[in-house]
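Model: You mentioned two targets. I'll fold them one after the other.
Researcher: Yes, keep them separate.
Model: Target one:
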Amino acid sequence: MEKTGTVSVLVVNDQSLQRLALRMLLTAEPGLTVVGEAADGDEAIRASAALRPDVVLMDSHLSRADGIDTIRRLARPAQRTRTPGFAGEEASAPRVLVLTAAGQEADAWAALRAGAGGFLLDDADPAELTAAIRVVAAGDAVITPGLTRALIDAVRLQHTVRPLPRTSGLGALTRRERDVLVAVASGWSNAEIAQWLSIAPTTVKTHVSNVLAKIGARARVQAVTFAYESGLIRPAA
């Protein structure tokens, strides 16, 4: 969903001072507006259903189980329990941007599987944060190169990745689309993939969009999960 106007943000953080600081920072930024705050997962679900933000900015310091479940319910509204007062309405899913601490790659991986659309280290500067919110609101993925590599390394150390059924979408990919998916899962940018395959970056973007549609992923980062869980890429022993 591409945004051309003001981007609305819901701030989720269990620390009141941090929520206040984020609100002040984002409110001062042209084109961004904070429509609400939440201190925990249940509050976040209710606020998202009522306020319909474009982006949920969520801190990963929430307890792991609560945080992952919250991301899943935010990113996949069809799986939510209906909220009183919204019966009959089709909930639109916000994009979830997670602020994560360095060294928490395992939690970031779980959040990715739950449907998070982007990750940013919690020590990012204000310009990085506001830019990331805009990118996620436009429907693209945000994940720092360092965290991408850390996530990939974490997955490669796992020994229990089980291939998904053939009906999961892998069989629908062309050979070129599989090549593109492998490259995406390796952390390559569109420009790097274009150079490797000797095609235009715009063609790469089209391939990536087709791959996401065929495997049922909402964002580029979910394609990394799919590539490993489908068995297309095998974790290192």
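Model: Target two:
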Amino acid sequence: MQNIPLLNLLYMLPPLFIVAFYYYAWVGKKTEIALATLRMSVQLILIGYVLTSLFSTNSLWLLALLVAVMMTAASLIARRNIRHKDLQTYFAILGAIALGGSFNLALVLWGVLDLENPLEPRFVIPLAGMIYANAMNAISLCAERYEKEREHHEKEKARAIAFKASMIPQINSFLAVGFVSLPGMMTGQILSGVDPLIAVRYQIVVMAMILSSGAMSNILYLTYIAHKES
């Protein structure tokens, strides 16, 4: 694959400056885009070093620690936009992401891919990252929408609206893939020289696990919240 010189990354700054300007002009938060960009860059550099060490040592305890950090951070970020930020709500989100996401991760590692060593970090970490990040986004949308809908509807109606709204991005992706977009994983494989028909198989697995993990995490969270309100 074509190597990207570090200085070439600077070409991505002008679009970010434009976004930051309008975000400040329309939303009123002058530093959020800059801080998010800085945090993204630092986190990716740090994880690059961690993954380099992990891939060379194949340490199971470091792998388990990294997966735990993923789930913990995803749960903290998911509750960012909801009003109820108590520990009970956090653990409900964490449990939903851990159960819904880990089930799909195990299914792919031990079933679909049929690996000789399913716990090899170079397989676990990228897949876990996709799964837990998607579950985080799904629950974030779901929980925030559920809170708003409960102000106007009974919990069954609010649950249905929240669940449907949280599934819109994944369903849209299913409908658009191939005709409108080539997803990131498939694009990366094609750029690295993989046969497009092989890349398609991997992308189907990724799309299915992303929708399933997000939906299952939402189902677990909404089931818990509805039971809590009973």
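Researcher: Noted. Anything on target two?
Model: The CA atoms of residues 78 and 140 lie 4 Å apart.
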